[in-house]
Amino acid sequence: MDPAATITLRQLVMALGDSLLEVQAAPAGLDVEINGVALLDAEDPPTALPGVLVLAIGSRGRAAFPALRAAGRDGATAVVVKLDAPAQAAGLSETATEAGVALLSLRGDARWEQVSALARAALDDAPPDDPGAGAEEGDLFSLAQTTAILTNGNVSIEDAANRVLAYSRTTDSDEADDLRRRSILGWQGPEAYLAKLREWGVFQHLHSSDEVIAIDSHAELGIRRRLAVAIRSGDRQLGTIWVQESSAPLSERSRQALLGAARVAALHLVRRRRELSDDVTFTRTLLAGLLDGSTGPQPLATHLGFDPARPAAVLGFSYGTTEAYEDADTVSAPELAHTEVTNLVSVHIAARHRSSLVTQVDSRIYVLLPQLPRSIDTDTLRGWALEITDAARRHLGLPLRGSVGCVVPGLGAVPESRREADRILDAMVSAGVSAAVAALPDIQAEVLVSEMLTLLSAHPEIRDPRLTALVAHDSRHQGRLAETLLTYLNSFGDVRAAAAQLHVHPNTLRYRLRRAEELTGLDLSRPDQRLLAMLQLRLPPTV
């Protein structure tokens, strides 16, 4: 674990869930930071270190009072204890509050080594401070939760020894079957069930295949239907992702979501084994350089074994506004964790294209698709992007806009595809395009007009000062002459159509047009003046 890694108490509780821990007292709130895990045996002197999570092993009930006081004295963040009876919680909570330390209670049948391992794993996977961190640097708990959303099931991620590394939160305790509860509480699948899986050939399938396998429900064993897929790095199996069906059926695309999640999880587990501890950061640096053109294609191609001469493309995604979707939930992008959105993109695109890379630059998410088949077309890529925006809308309530950059002949031309993806996203915002995903042929006119408006905005010297004065006049007098003129021009000079749009009488519209001509000296009979007016009046009024 990085000694500088920290996680908040809130993140820890959300990661481990109420299957294990329950908050009894939090005098400083849930956003206090935890920087390590310390084991305190009942026979040890009660001491602690600043910022740590203290696991008070063997100190039940009143015996935990010294550990709480010592933790408060030494600046520890929280103490975890087991309760002999619920009534003990009140006294312990009072002592914890006086000491200024958080108190968490652990279920009596849970194992201390399980909590220690999961807490340390959460710290290991804590997102870095770098705001540009990509999807690979999220944590396994976040990935499990994203996969649960996409599959409509309960997810657990295990290593190759069938030890639980992370799991999704279960909103309804009745939705977790006996196997899931026992696996989480016991940190490992029960041996009786593991024996059944071996008997049914499930482990053999997972060891030799990348395909998703289904395991039927067995009421006599207290388990519901499951899907499973191996997490692999090359020929080696690193672990398994399991999805248990809850009270509702699994989603139609559960298998596809699992395939993508397994490929994303492989990045986590490889990093967890320290085999490529610096690889994620290095890959992200090379990818960012390739996208903006500051780094050539060869470093990334050599690092990841890509063929730089194969076709490639870039997909771009940005957070939209709910106004663009009539039935979208009113959820703003800042209310969603960036990792949750990026995980969703990563899972979906990894299921479609194994070599895909995902990164976030500012508020946009970019997907590099290297080594595409030479027969790939824009319609296929548009379909992949639509799957992502649809999933973001259904599962996260987030209107995500997507753009399809041009397919380029090799990695060297990737910056061209990224620029095209950005041009499309810019135009979708400025022109109010309602489509969730677009390629350049779909909105070429909107893109070009948007770029002409950007040029006009950046160069006041090529704007008509008479139109600038008209906008200023409206601002001073709360008038609508500029709006009326633009509506009239957009209606191809149809007075009645323009008047209907503005909800005014045609004579009122004619009067406003004459007034605009009088104030500015414009001659609307001249095509060039009409053309310039149509462009310039589309600029924001503050310009």
Q: Which ranges are low-confidence, i.e. pLDDT below 50, for 5 or more consecutive residues?
A: 128-138, 321-337
Instruction: Compute the CA-based radius of gyration.
Output: 29 Å
> Major beta sheet, specifics?
5 strands, mixed
Spatial shape: globular
Q: Given the helix and strand composition, which structural class is it?
A: alpha+beta
Give the distance, in angstroms, between the N- and C-terminal Cα atoms.
Answer: 52 Å
Q: Helical residue percent?
A: 40-55%
Helix count from the secondary structure assignment:
20
Beta content comes to 15-25%
Annotation, overall tally of beta strands: 17
Instruction: Name the strands of the widest sheet in spatial order.
Output: 2-7-6-5-4
Mean pLDDT: 80
